[in-house]
Design a protein that fits this description.
- The chain is 60% helix and 7% strand.
- It starts with 17 loop residues before the first helix and ends with a helix.
- The chain is elongated, with a radius of gyration of 19 Å.
- It has a two-stranded antiparallel sheet with strand order 1-2.
- The chain has one domain (18-43, 75-170).
- It is built from four helices and two strands, in the order H-E-E-H-H-H.
- It has helices at 18-41, 66-86, 103-136, 147-170; strands spanning 48-53, 59-64.
- Helix 2 (66-86) runs antiparallel to helix 3 (103-136).
- The chain has 171 residues and is mainly alpha-helical.
- The longest helix is centred in the C-terminal third of the chain and has 34 residues, at 103-136.
- The chain crosses the membrane at residues 21-42, 62-82, 113-136, 142-164.
- This is DUF1648 domain-containing protein.
- Keywords: Membrane, Transmembrane, Transmembrane helix.
- Residues 29-72 form the DUF1648 domain.
Length: 171
């Protein structure tokens, strides 16, 4: 189950690219900014805030403003879980056989995928919180109609890219 027979490579050898480092900084700052925005605006928020959006971005359900805190906790929790998972690429699931000769590059591709996904998730949770708060405060609509495409593109494209790279590595 945990593929303990796979080669183990020091995570220090699998350095993050400059883009990955920049993405991490931007996502963390945006998330912290959304938390600060939530704390500052908490007393101004109505009891009911948008809790769900339809495919076209329209609000389909309202819920307690505490749901924004749930978004915060889930987003941070997913980020932390994936941050830990990123450190153990030999435990990841691969569509190819991992050998001594391809392990380092396969692990780099997989670790990079986890970095992209965890940061995109953090950005999406921050944007969902901000969007719900802006609508609840009556300031307009910001990203409701583009949120679903952002989810699919932001998570789907890095996965496809990683699979293609891994398949090329296997050939």
């Amino acid at each position: 189950m945990f593929n303990s027979d796979r080669p183990k490579i020091s995570i220090k050898k699998l350095k993050k690219s400059v883009f990955e480092q920049l993405l991490s900084i931007v996502s963390i700052l945006l998330f912290i900014g959304s938390v600060v925005f939530l704390v500052v605006m908490w007393s101004e928020l109505p009891v009911q805030v948008p809790g769900h959006f339809g495919i076209t971005g329209e609000v389909t359900r309202y819920g307690s403003r505490w749901e924004l805190v749930v978004l915060l906790i889930v987003g941070a929790g997913l980020y932390l879980l994936m941050h830990v998972l990123e450190k153990y690429p030999h435990l990841h699931n691969y569509p190819i056989e991992i050998t001594e000769s391809n392990a380092e590059e396969a692990y780099r591709i997989s670790r990079s995928l986890i970095v992209y996904i965890k940061n995109i998730i953090l950005i999406l949770f921050a944007l969902m919180m901000i969007n719900s708060m802006i609508i609840a405060l009556g300031w307009g609509e910001v990203i409701g109609f583009v949120l679903l495409p952002l989810v699919f593109l932001g998570t789907g494209l890095p996965i496809i890219r990683a699979i293609v790279k891994l398949m090329k590595l296997n050939s």
